[in-house]
Amino acid sequence: MEIIKWAATNNYDAVVFPLSEKLSVNNAHIKLAKRYDLIIEAGGHELSLLLPRRLFTFNKELFRMEQGKRKKQHHFCTANPETTAIIAEHARNLFTRSMAAVTVPRIYHLLPDEGGEDIWCACPACRAFTPAEQNIIAVNTVADELNRLDPDARLSFKDLGTEPEKAGVPPRGNMFIFPASTNIP
After folding, report:
1. What does the alpha-carbon distance between residue 125 and residue 142 come to, in Å, rounded to a whole number?
2. 130 near 83, Cβ under 8 Å?
3. Would 71 be classed as within a structural domain?
4. Phi, psi for residue 4 in degrees, rounded to 5
5. 3-state secondary structure of 120
6. Cys-Cys link to 74, which of 94, 104, 116, 144 (CB 3.0-4.6 A)?
7. Are 100 and 25 in contact (CB under 8 A)?
8. In what order do the strands lie in the sheet with 154-157?
9. Is the pLDDT score of 105 beyond 80?
10. Residue 47: strand, helix, or coil
11. Is residue 103 part of a domain?
């Protein structure tokens, strides 16, 4: 709660809550932020949470490949349609659960694992895409779900070094590049 008071007294206009938290209008932190008239956004370095790690044991093909072996840590296989279906479903659930708490217009942030931004899948199908393009493929999947739920909502993504307009995979219209000078834990 102290961070919310600090943000309000230091002229910040928004706070970002992790999507992994159960965001609801009854949450004491949300109530306090609204009392201070702060804009409430949600997200962070949580892209990997959209594919539950518990699936790894019996569904390794959903996860990223590195040197011929599937890896549980960091991200997933973006070329696998089953993976994108699962991340879309989990995104839909997270967005639906948080919509009442996030202020309008709704802003979400979905960033790759901190420290693992460039660690993406190297399976034969994914090798056709750069890490930046794989990131955009994943976030596009999520952006489509967000658009279905709230066409006015926006989703930030991290630019991984390839200018999105020059990448082979363009970002959706409801997406914007996460400002490099901003820090979300």
Report:
1. 20
2. no
3. yes
4. -70, -45
5. coil
6. 116
7. yes
8. 14-17, 39-44, 107-110, 154-157, 175-177
9. yes
10. helix
11. yes
Determine contact, residues 155/139, Cβ cutoff 8 Å. yes
Q: Is the dihedral of CA 106, 112, 117, 122 positive or negative?
A: negative
- Supply the pTM of this predicted model: 0.88
Beta strands in 61-143 (DSSP E): 65-66, 69-70, 107-110
Domain that holds residue 65: 48-169
How many domains does one find in the chain? 1
Question: Could you tell me if 95 and 146 are in contact, meaning their C-beta atoms sit under 8 angstroms apart?
Answer: yes
- Residue 99, both tokens: 């919509």
Report if residue 90 sits inside a domain: yes
Alpha carbons 16 and 105: distance in angstroms, whole number:
14
Question: For the segment 118-176, what is each residue's pLDDT rounded down to a tens digit?
Answer: 899 999 999 999 998 999 999 999 999 999 999 999 999 987 765 655 668 889 999 99
Answer for the pair 145, 172: CB distance below 8 angstroms, yes or no: no
Instruction: Please list, in sequence order, all residues whose beta carbon lies within 8 angstroms of the beta carbon of residue 18, skipping any fewer than 6 positions away.
Output: 42, 43, 44, 46
Domain for residue 42, yes or no?
Answer: no
